[in-house]
């Protein structure tokens, strides 16, 4: 089975290091100290090149992962519906008993 591009441990470490550097307080301090200059508008061609480059970084789930996740969601929906059915039935029973008690006098 072929590996996904960018899934090697060294590539992941490089991405993590870049993210950490960008999010560090030191990076924020230097960005805040720099004078605010208006951003240069990119051309539509450059924009679509960047979009294409970002789209290449997307990793899609496999068919097996999608199937397992779907089954888990279905099971949780059934469990939640049974729980709410029981709670609704219990509350309905309690309200009916209170109403019978109030009208019995």
UniProtKB/TrEMBL annotation:
Subcellular locations according to the entry: Cell membrane; Membrane
InterPro entries hit by this protein: SecE_bac (IPR005807), SecE_sf (IPR038379), Translocase_SecE/Sec61-g (IPR001901)
Position of the signal peptide: none
Keywords annotated in UniProt: Cell membrane, Membrane, Protein transport, Translocation, Transmembrane, Transmembrane helix, Transport
Predominant subcellular localization, coarse grouping: membrane
Compositional bias per record (Low complexity), positions renumbered to this chain: 11-24
UniProt keyword Metal-binding, yes or no: no
Pfam family, one: SecE
Transmembrane segments: 67-95
Record's bilayer topology term: Single-pass membrane protein
NCBIfam families associated with the record: secE_bact
HAMAP family: SecE
Protein's job: Essential subunit of the Sec protein translocation channel SecYEG. Clamps together the 2 halves of SecY. May contact the channel plug during translocation.
Protein name: Protein translocase subunit SecE
